[in-house]
Amino acid sequence: MTGSPPHAADFVDSNASVQTKITVADPQRMVSLLGSHDEILKLVERAVRSDIHVRGNEITISGEPAENAKAERIFAELLELIEKGETLTADAVRRTVGMLEQGATERPAEVLTLNILSRRGRTIRPKTLGQKRYVDSIDQHTIVFGIGPAGTGKTYLAMAKAVQSLQAKQVNRIILTRPAVEAGERLGFLPGTLFEKIDPYLRPLYDALHDMIDPDSIPRLMANGTIEVAPLAYMRGRTLNDAFIILDEAQNTTPEQMKMFLTRLGFGSKIVVTGDVTQVDLPGGTRSGLKVVREILDGVEDVHFAQLSSADVVRHRLVSDIVDAYERWDAAQEADAQPIRAVPGRGGHPGHPGRGARRR
Questions:
Q1: Chain segment 302-359, per-residue pLDDT in tens
Q2: Burial zone of 87 (CB within 10 Å; 0-12 exposed, 13-18 middle, 19+ buried)
Q3: Which member of 25, 70, 169, 275 lies 3.0 to 4.6 Å from 251 by CB, making a disulfide possible if both were Cys?
Q4: What's the pLDDT at 121?
Q5: How many CA atoms lie within 13 A of 120 on its CB side?
Q6: pTM recorded for the entire structure
Q7: Quick one: how far is CA 341 from the chain centroid?
Q8: How far is CA 314 from its chain centroid?
Q9: Is residue 190 classed as helix, strand or coil in its secondary structure?
Q10: Tens digit of pLDDT for each residue in 328-343?
Q11: Do the Cβ atoms of 280 and 147 come closer than 8 Å?
Q12: Chain-centroid distance, C-alpha 200
């Protein structure tokens, strides 16, 4: 090979330390960006391997180009949140970092400022990328399945969208339903009036409603049929027009119940089905309607399956860790449950333990 020797400048060391500077002109925004006692700054420092120094209105980031770029993006998203009037919290920083690490096209600042409902100074909005996509899918499809572990906001966000649709007059009523599986839906065997019988199973739905609607108006809305809360068994034989319908705890439906419910869909209505396929309370041997419906409706137009994960848990941080731990344990149990076949030529045969097979 001929030619002049390469110049030193032709070699670029991607691991070489470089400096990036960010200037924040507004002193108040700089104070908000750093947080009380530099709490926000310390969280950002822990999220990247670059060194971060602040002097006056200037932030200096020193490190590898990729890490500097990551830090710069984090600060840019946090500044965007501040500009939109948000108060930065440790949770907002962690969620911003998590979304950036997922490499999604959506900007964290857009996700964390998507307002669904506001009441008495409290705003309901998605807090994770998965939740934002779930909320978007409800806007874009007629039937949406929100599937995921506890604490991912499946039902809460669906109810917020239902109330939003009612307030915008996109629907005339909201229908909330759950299977009363713990009683086998044999409500006649339970003591008390009908309301007293079904109340324990529907109480979580009432609680969420109270967060979103003036509690004093709920009895009136229920009396005139604008809001209906009823067990799944009461949906049979009906056609539900101009309604936002939510089926909660759908993992406890049978395939027959799921079919019955989905075929209640009328004109001008929307259905959201929520559930956690890892928490099925049906009697042994009964298949979950939520587990099989994905196979049945896969590819059907205007039906969407939104899958939420431990990354979308918005309860205590430990809830996400607990969900992950159970998933690992379940996977290990399934692996251990796989039968071991006899080894040819070592005695024994499949289904009968011999020298070549072990019984588990």
A1: 999 999 998 898 876 677 778 778 878 878 887 777 665 555 554 444 444 444 444 3
A2: exposed
A3: 275
A4: 72
A5: 6
A6: 0.78
A7: 40
A8: 8
A9: coil
A10: 887 888 777 766 555 5
A11: no
A12: 25
* Beta strand 227-231 pairing with 270-275: unpaired
Structure-block tokens of residue 85: 């009037």
Direct distance between the N- and C-terminal alpha carbons of the chain, in angstroms, rounded to an integer: 65
- In this structure, is the dihedral angle defined by the CA atoms of residues 59, 65, 71 and 75, taken in order, positive or negative? positive
Whole-angstrom distance, CA of residue 109 vs CA of residue 112: 5
Cross-strand partners of 146? 274, 306
3-state secondary structure of 296: helix
Give residues with Cβ within 8 angstroms of 275, minimum separation 6. 145, 146, 147, 154, 248, 249, 250, 251, 252, 290
- Supply 37's token pair: 């006692």
- Helix boundaries (H) for 181-303: 194-212, 218-223, 255-262, 289-297
Q: Which of 302, 280, 298 is nearest to 289 (CA)?
A: 280
Query: 206-210, long-range: CB within 8 Å, 24+ apart, which pairs?
Result: 208/155, 208/156, 208/159, 209/159, 209/163, 209/176
Separation in Å, CA 200 to CA 112, 149, 190, 216, 302? 33, 21, 11, 21, 34
173-178/227-231 β-pairing:
parallel
Report helix, strand or coil for 58: strand
Share of the chain above pLDDT 90, in %: 63
Q: Do the strands 122-124 and 117-119 form a parallel or antiparallel pair, or are they unpaired? A: antiparallel
